Amino acid sequence: MVREKYHRNLEALKINVLNMAETSLMMLKNANESLINLDKNLAQETIKMDEIIDEHEMTIDKCVSNLIALQQPMAGDMRLITSCLTMAIDLERLSDLACNMAWVTLEIDGENAEIETLLSKIFVMGNIAENMLKDTIIAFTSNDAELARKIAEEDDKLDKLFFENEKQFIEMMNKNNSIITNASHLLFVLRYLERIGDHICNICQSIVYVVTAERVKLN
C-alpha cells in the first residue's frame, strides 16, 4: 500500500513537470506570436500565464519534499526526483524570459519596414526555441536521452543567429536614429531567446542524467 502511494506520487511529480513544460511552451509560442504581430492583447495574456507557472513550481516543490522526506526513494528514483526539481527551476526561468518578451511587445511603439525586418529575424529564433522545447517535452515523456542530446545541438543555431542579428541590429540603429528605441528593446529579445536556449539545454542535461545516470554538459 505504501509503495503504491509512492509510485502514484512519483507519477504525479512527472505529470506536474510535464504540465509546467507545456505551459512554458505555450508562453513561448504566444510571446513569439505577440511580438511578430505586435499583438498587445496576446502579450498581456502571456504575462498573466506566469502566475500558472509559479503555481506549477510550488506544486513540484511540495511533491519533491514529500517524496524525499516521507518515502525514502531509491537511487534511480532519486535522480528523477532531484532532476524534476532542477527542470522546474529552468522552466520557471525560461517562462520569465518569455514573459519579458511579451513586455517588449507592449513597449514597441509603431512599426516600419526596418522594424518588421528585425521582428522577422526574431521570429525565426523564436521558432527554433519553440521546436527545441517541443522536442524536449517528447524526450522527457519518452526517456529519450539521445533525443535530448540532439536537441542541445540546436542551441548552436540560436547562438549563431544571436551574434549575427545583434551585429545587424546595431548597424541598422547606427544608420537610422528613428528606430533606436524600438530596436534597443528588440536587442533584449535576442538575448532572451539565447538564454531560453541555454535553459532548454539544461533541461536536456537533466533528462540525460535521469536516463543514463551520466552527468553531461550540453550547453
**Share of residues in strands:** under 5%
Rg, Å, rounded: 19 Å
CATH topology: Methane Monooxygenase Hydroxylase, Chain G, domain 1
Using DSSP, what is the number of strands? Answer: 0
CATH architecture: Up-down Bundle
Name of the top-level CATH class: Mainly Alpha
Shape: elongated
Mean pLDDT: 94
How many independent structural domains? 1
Point out poorly predicted stretches: none
Q: How many H/I helices?
A: 8
- The CATH homologous superfamily is called Phosphate transport system protein phou homolog 2, domain 2
Order of helices and strands: HHHHHHHH
Sketch the major β-sheet: none
Features:
219 residues, mainly alpha, Methane Monooxygenase Hydroxylase, Chain G, domain 1, 8 helices, 88% helix, elongated
Question: Could you walk me through the main structural features you see in this protein, from its secondary elements to its overall organization?
Answer:
The chain is an all-alpha fold and 219 residues long. It has a single domain (2-212), classed as Up-down Bundle (Methane Monooxygenase Hydroxylase, Chain G, domain 1), CATH 1.20.58. It contains eight helices and no strands. The chain has helices at residues 2-36, 40-48, 50-71, 75-107, 113-142, 145-153, 155-175, 180-212. The longest helix is centred in the first third of the chain and has 35 residues, at 2-36. It is elongated and about 65 Å long.
Tell me briefly what this model is.
This protein has 219 residues and is mainly α. It is 88% helix and 0% strand. It has helices spanning 2-36, 40-48, 50-71, 75-107, 113-142, 145-153, 155-175, 180-212.
